[in-house]
Amino acid sequence: MTLEVAQLQTGYPGAGKPLLATPLSFTAQAGSLWVLAGHNGAGKSTLLNTLCGLVPAYHGTVSWNGYPVAGMDPLSRSAIFALVFTARPAASSFTGFELTGTALFRAQHLSENARNERISKALEQAGAAALAQVHFGRMSDGEKQKVLLARALAQETPVLLLDEPSAFLDYTAKRSLALMLQQLAIEHQKLVMVSTHDTEAFLPRASDLLFLDRKGSARHLAHPAQDPETVQLFQDAY
Predict the structure, then answer these.
(1) Directed axis angle between helix 171-187 and helix 141-154, to 10°?
(2) Is 115 exposed, middle or buried (0-12, 13-18, 19+ CB in 10 A)?
(3) pLDDT for 38-68, tens place per residue?
């Protein structure tokens, strides 16, 4: 299973010029953990939105297993991409269990027991089992983030896109999250892509690094923790 990006430029309609000005091409395979890093405003979130088809490409194409994402309807895309973005849903009265269950809109064929098992499994994977009966509005920011991750896991898609998933976690929790996402990618053959500023926690687990700079270009490094160019890349950028 492969995500193919060809000559991609990203940006929002009407913006006048692309955020990612230098065309970007790469192939990302299932079973890998990609880290998107770079300056604020460089376009990391926009890139994630473009990859899953929420924002049209300024130029170029994104394809999943040879099929253009831009030509897919929302239901088809939801079978491929699960998202954990920074926006919080207006779901303060939902319990963690109920909110996680909203991901199962494509699984109406499942029995109630099968649905409950899938929700419980996702909460356990995300480290949010203790939040199953807690109302979303009473959770801390870090707890909300775990439940939103559980919701994405319950969707059971081949691609998982996360925008700053560790923003409200302490350092130990950040490292645990990075390990969990690496294991999820490898053991379940998912493509996991994470936009983050917490590179100390995520780079040791990453199969690939995509660094976006303020000039509108991107640099790709495979196995960044072992590549000496990674240190130089960050030193030059900051």
Answers:
(1) 0
(2) middle
(3) 988 889 999 999 999 999 999 999 999 999 9
